[in-house]
Amino acid sequence: MVDQAGPQSPLRRRSGRILLRLPLIIGAADPNLAFDWENVETIIVSLHGGMIRTHQQIRVGSILEIRLRDKERAAHARVVWTSVEGTPQGIELGFEILDDDGFWEMKFPPDSSQQNRE
Question: Is 17 among the domain residues?
């Protein structure tokens, strides 16, 4: 598949992605949202966000609190995408970290457009 995203395209990625399973706890950062805290795992992470599977219906635009289960790190994240259909493992959900680009405490590869320019 050819990357057809231009420099100003919303499809352009800000950082590379890594397939990585990290244990998280997610909950609603907004008290008006009605969903429970849930133990989840990441599927993919990037400097600016990630993707998980959840068993709850969480709307795009909702603000989550995400916590690394084994550490005292927490951040707020906005839901930017959800899958249309669920699987037995749950609904896929993409989020953007709002507070801290260093939340994952790891170095990420550059996006493919940066690699192609070098």
Answer: no
The residue among 80, 71, 64, 7 whose CA lies nearest residue 31 is 64
Contact yes or no for 28/65 (Cβ under 8 A): yes
Percent of the chain with pLDDT over 90: 58
- Helix (H) or strand (E) holding 50, with range, is strand 49-54
Look up residue 97 and give its two tokens. Answer: 């970290």
Query: In this predicted structure, which of 9-13, 17-21, 86-90, 98-102 has the lowest mean pLDDT?
Result: 9-13
Cα distances (angstroms) measured from residue 115 to each of 14, 16, 55, 64: 12, 10, 36, 32
Range of the domain at 77: 24-91
Residue 50 located in a structural domain = yes
CA-based R_g, the chain, Å = 15
d(C-alpha 115, C-alpha 30), whole Å = 38
